[in-house]
């Protein structure tokens, strides 16, 4: 049997190219190598946005359309909605009974987000218990590997601790201890050099009209010290060249580096190469997106057979869990 992989993403609606290169591109590859479960983490979205939940369903549809348009295939992987598997909520409750508060409070990402979101009211149990819900998501499917960035490793370690604690308390080894799957992925900054974010309006969306994309790229900031066409530039500090590392060929990158440093090419020529590659990248995605938009009117109905696959898996696990805790 293939090893299992689990990952999830909060429904944020339309996804940008940073989401693709940071996670989804890797998921598309993994679905051909492992038995994969990929979830729309809508309960997780409520941990920090509980006061404004009305857009989650529409954002879920947009995100699924994005996933499908870039190559995620529900016949190769199980795509489902977290909140439509109530067994996850049951497991989350039971794991919460055995998870010490001190474990949750020491989680580095908890401390960091408390500081980063200091202006928002997130002093709630759901936010504190986020790692327990994440653990329930992961171990429900007897996951072997979880593709994560280095900052998420403490969450995986906590999941492993909870699995061990459950086994020690109840004498049942029901769950698999998941392992972090660290994968080198290209990271793209926003068009202004900051973190790519829709709230900063510095993103290129996967479904964005190419005329809009081209306009954004033409006005993208470059080396701030290169004020005139005749000034030599430094690709190492230029956000445009960061994109060339992802989209352009090695030969093109060599040409750009030499031309920029010697001022033999200008920023317009440099950007024109990127624009051409961006169009080649986005065109097939847009074509697939139109196809799926026409075919999928109700995303929950579309996901129903894959949701059943996930729920059936969880039902079998929870039978064993209830026996173990004598409920």
If you had to describe this structure to a student in words, what would you say it looks like?
With 327 residues, the protein is mainly alpha-helical. The chain folds into two domains: 211 residues, Rossmann fold (3-Layer(aba) Sandwich); 82 residues, Orthogonal Bundle (Tyrosyl-Transfer RNA Synthetase). 56% of the residues lie in helices and 8% in strands. It is built from 14 helices and five strands. The strands form two sheets. The protein has a three-stranded parallel beta sheet with strand order 1-2-3. It has a two-stranded parallel sheet with strand order 4-5. Strand 1, helix 1 and strand 2 form a beta-alpha-beta unit. The radius of gyration is 22 Å and the shape is elongated. The two termini are 31 Å apart. The mean pLDDT is 92.
What is this entry, summarized?
This protein is mainly alpha-helical and 327 residues long. The chain has 14 helices and five strands. Helix 3 crosses helix 13 (267-295), helix 4 (86-98) packs parallel to helix 14 and helix 11 packs across helix 13.
Task: Please tell me the CATH architecture of the largest domain by its name.
Answer: 3-Layer(aba) Sandwich
What level of helicity do the residues show? 55-70%
What is the H level of CATH, i.e. the homologous superfamily of the largest domain? HUPs
**In CATH's first tier, which class of the largest domain applies?**
Alpha Beta
């Amino acid at each position: 049997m293939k090893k299992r992989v689990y990952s999830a993403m909060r429904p944020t609606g339309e996804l940008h190219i940073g989401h693709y290169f940071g996670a989804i591109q890797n998921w598309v590859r993994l679905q051909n190598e492992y038995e994969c479960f990929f979830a729309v983490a809508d309960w997780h979205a409520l941990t920090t946005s509980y006061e404004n939940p009305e857009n989650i369903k529409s954002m879920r549809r947009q995100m699924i359309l994005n996933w499908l348009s870039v190559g995620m295939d529900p016949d190769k992987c199980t795509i489902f909605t977290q909140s439509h598997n109530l067994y996850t909520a049951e497991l989350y409750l039971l794991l919460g009974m055995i998870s010490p508060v001190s474990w949750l409070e020491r989680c580095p990402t908890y401390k960091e987000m408390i500081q980063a979101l200091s202006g928002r009211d997130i002093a709630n149990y759901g936010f504190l218990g986020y790692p327990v819900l994440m653990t329930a998501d992961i171990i429900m499917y007897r996951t072997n590997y979880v593709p994560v960035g280095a900052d998420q490793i403490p969450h995986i370690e906590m999941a492993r601790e909870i699995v061990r604690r459950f086994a020690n308390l109840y004498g049942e080894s029901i769950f698999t201890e998941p392992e972090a799957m660290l994968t080198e992925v290209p990271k793209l900054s926003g068009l202004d050099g900051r973190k790519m974010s829709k709230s900063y309006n510095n993103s290129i969306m996967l479904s964005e009209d190419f005329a809009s994309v081209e306009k954004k790229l033409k006005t993208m900031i470059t080396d701030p010290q290169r004020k005139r066409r005749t000034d030599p530039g430094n690709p190492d500090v230029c956000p445009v060249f960061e994109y060339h590392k992802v989209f352009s060929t090695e030969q093109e990158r060599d040409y750009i580096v030499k031309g920029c440093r010697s001022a033999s090419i200008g920023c317009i020529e440099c950007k024109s190469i990127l624009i051409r590659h961006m169009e080649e990248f986005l065109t097939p995605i847009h074509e697939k997106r139109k196809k799926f938009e026409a075919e999928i009117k109700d995303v929950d109905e579309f996901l129903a057979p894959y949701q059943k696959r996930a729920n059936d898996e969880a039902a079998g696990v929870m039978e064993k869990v209830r026996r173990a805790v004598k409920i």
